[in-house]
Amino acid sequence: MGFLDKLKNKTQRNKGRGKEAAGRAADDPYLEAEGRRDRMAGGVKQVGEQAKDAAREIRKSTRK
Q1: Domain of 45?
Q2: Residue ranges of region Disordered (predicted)?
Q3: Percentage helix, strand, coil, to 5, in the chain?
Q4: What is the torsion angle, in degrees rounded to the nearest 10, for the CA atoms of residue 37, residue 17, residue 40 and residue 52?
Q5: Pair 23, 29: CB distance under 8 Å
Q6: How many domains does the chain contain in total?
Q7: d(CA 4, CA 23)
Q8: Quick count: other Cβ atoms within 10 Å of Cβ 43?
Q9: Which of 9, 44, 55, 63 is most buried, judged by most C-beta within 10 A?
């Protein structure tokens, strides 16, 4: 499940970047803010996935 979650997070970040750029181009601060929010949410989720991976690696290393 980790791979799909990471892929979804990266997709959300990229979608946010696109919205942010479209908002700047259209001079629409609301669209730009929505894109920034999507980008940040994807980044936070990505950090959570990295923390889960780190915890999983720690558990694996202490079992041996």
Answers
A1: 2-63
A2: 1-64
A3: 90, 0, 10
A4: 140
A5: yes
A6: 1
A7: 28
A8: 15
A9: 9
Instruction: Calculate the CA 23 to chain-centre distance.
Output: 19
pTM of the model as a whole: 0.79
Q: Give the pair of three-digit tokens for residue 45.
A: 């989720």
Token pair 């940040």 is at which residue?
40
Q: How far apart are CA 19 and CA 30, in angstroms?
A: 10
Q: Position of tokens 């997070």? A: 9
The CA distance from 51 to 45, in Å, is 10
> In the prediction, which pLDDT does 20 show?
96
- What is the C-alpha to C-alpha distance for residues 37 and 35, in angstroms, rounded to an integer? 5
